[in-house]
Amino acid sequence: MAKVHPNVVVRESPAGAVVEEEQQQPTVLTVWRKSLLFNCDGFTVFDSTGGLAFRVDRYGSSSRSRRRAEDVVLMDAAGKPLLTVRRKIKLSLSLAEHWVLYEGDAGAAGTKPLLSVRRHHVGLHRRASDKTLAHITPLGSSSSSYAEAVAYVVDGSYGRRSCAVRDARGGASAAEVQRKESVGDDVFRLVVADHRMGAALSMGVVIALDQMFGGASPRTSLLPRSWTA
Fold it and tell me: Contact 220/41 with Cβ under 8 angstroms?
């Protein structure tokens, strides 16, 4: 008798042999662009059962936010830091913005950079078919717990809540932002299909995209600019 496992589908081949296939269901999250805490900016993310999965709470006047104004920390439901998203601008002719995602709390010693999310440069003669929004590049040893060392591109429209993170080498999407009907732009779905990317890292990319294309003013932005050479 074939071994039964919750994540394995057992089927019978034409020759009568039993074949086991790994089945990985997409992770579906509901993202609300609002903190549950009073007088905070941030995100609240729910899993498919309605439980709290992730949170971002940024106090506008606390000593901690003044000390680390360039950082936004993605936490789990219990408040444990999972990722830090740090915004930077490289001083060059293009003033190219990029966001670096760090594992855990970037203020702690030994924190590892995982990914760089760079806004796609639009030339003077951009083709109408070019829907690229951003480029995602692995940094350091990002092939560990969060993602394999592959590059991704983001295409579509974040403003319309319809964009996808894809392996730069081609293939199906690793994660998608999808509109939820009749609830406005502040509530949307995040569907993570490729578990190499993972839900936490996908949410970190969403935070960076929101700063690129969300239309937040400098007063309300979660990630004030950090100028670097």
Answer: yes
8 A C-beta contact, residue 101 and residue 205:
yes
Mention every residue, 6+ apart, whose C-beta is less than 8 A from residue 217. none
Measured in residues, the chain has a length of: 229
State whether residue 113 is helix, strand or coil.
Answer: strand
Type of residue at 151: A
Beta bridge partners of 32: 44, 187
CA 227, CA 229: separation in Å to the nearest integer? 7
- Residue 156 makes CB contacts below 8 A (sequence gap 6+) with 131, 133, 162, 163, 164, 177
Burial 33-67 (b: 16+ CB within 10 A, else e): bebeeeebbbbbbbeeeeeebbbbbbbeeeeebee
Per-10-residue mean pLDDT of the chain, 229 residues long, equals: 36 45 79 88 94 88 45 93 86 68 85 90 60 88 50 92 90 90 88 90 95 57 41
CB atoms within 10 A of CB 171: 9
pTM (2 d.p.):
0.76
